[in-house]
Amino acid sequence: MISGYDALCDECPLLCATQQFSPLSGTRSLEDQSHSDDDEPVEILPYLYLGNVHHSSCRQLLQRLGVTALLNVSTSCANHFPSLFQYLTIPVNDSASEDLATWFSTANDFIDSIKQNGGKVLVHCHAGRSRSATVCLAYLMRTCHLSLDAAYEHVRTRREVIDPNLNFMQQLQDYGHRIDRGEVPRTPTAVPLTPCASRSRSSPQTPCPLSLGDGSSDLPTLLLTTDSSDDLELPPYTSSRASAPAFVRSHPVRHALLFFLLQSGLHDSKISGLDPTSLA
After folding, report:
1. Where is the domain boundary, 141, 163, 180?
2. Which residues does the annotation mark as catalytic?
């Protein structure tokens, strides 16, 4: 007879990893909790979901959502159910030097092929914030004929924690320029977007270190709080356009980092080839 704990491990193996889950206490580590606060992936399109490593490890959840394939954008996340789902792994790290743009075409083709067969894809990395979000943004730009700003806003209203690193944002902007020049063909007909109510914000008094990705950064760490907009003094945003892009307007931390990079000149040596002014 299989125990309840063994059944859980069969359904969600990642929750039962060593030192991550205690069958006696039923508690997870703080690091584990930080990635599983959002219980389910979010629907970006009717056949496209965005989530994290924990979502990718829960068989029952995937089957309930009708997911038939997973796009794993990481070098460390396991593909837990190869006999049940179709997998594509894009082995990139979340860093200021990684070239994720070279994989956009492969990722787009994979998602399209699953859609054409009537399936659904979960795109995930570790936290579901940077690498997997970047892949979803690139797909929307090409398939739904969206600008980077519009694609970012569409995804952010569904998963507010998205935060592609600055290197990936630059690659997405370059990708948008290539689409505009016809170097990357759009789909003949734009896939229509579905409306979605914004998810509630629930992270008061959370320190936000400014970094280039999920890992450590060579840049000094600046701590800001996400709910103290009245006390947070940011430099004024200036642009020739009518308003700031959504990824700056909705992300004051990114705004502060861009200003910091510009004022310090660190962008010349710390982020090769990245022009922070193009993101502002």
Report:
1. 180
2. 125
In degrees rounded to 5, what are phi and psi of residue 254? -65, -40
What is the chain's mean pLDDT, rounded?
Answer: 73
Query: Which pLDDT tens digit goes with each residue over 140-173?
Result: 999 999 999 999 999 999 999 999 999 999 999 9
SS3 of 64, please? helix
- What are the phi and psi torsion angles at 139 (to 5°)? -65, -45
Q: Which two tokens mark 129?
A: 């914030």
Distance from chain centroid for Cα 44: 11
Helix (H) or strand (E) holding 96: none
CATH of the domain at 48: 3.90.190.10
Kindly state whether residues 138 and 275 are assigned to the same domain. no
Mean pLDDT split into 10-residue runs, the chain, 280 residues = 53 49 35 54 98 97 98 97 98 96 98 98 98 98 96 96 96 97 89 64 35 38 34 36 53 52 46 46
What is the CA angle 37-38-40, rounded to 5? 140
d(CA 28, CA 122): 24
